[in-house]
Known about the structure:
- The chain has helices at residues 11-18, 24-44, 47-54, 59-74.
- The chain is mainly alpha-helical.
- It has a domain at 46-73.
- The protein is elongated.
- It starts with 10 loop residues before the first helix and ends in a 9-residue tail after the last helix.
Amino acid sequence: xxxxxxxxxxxxxxxxxxxxPDVAPMQKEMLDGFQGQMEKAAKAMNPEDIMKTIFPTGTDxxxxxxxxxxxxxxxxxxxxxxx
Length: 83
């Protein structure tokens, strides 16, 4: 015997029916806190500091990365597959 029941309800109705807590207010409070922290951190960092974080050796590191990229992808086919 097979029984199939379809229930149409919103997520909020399902949570209330199952007795689960409504976490929306807590989630909103946490997201607002994270947003405030992100805005505070963004105001504190200037673009030069961000670039130093990404490329610690400065523009030389970017040039080295570009050279490595081109040497990797312009070299011979080393995948073992024939073209």
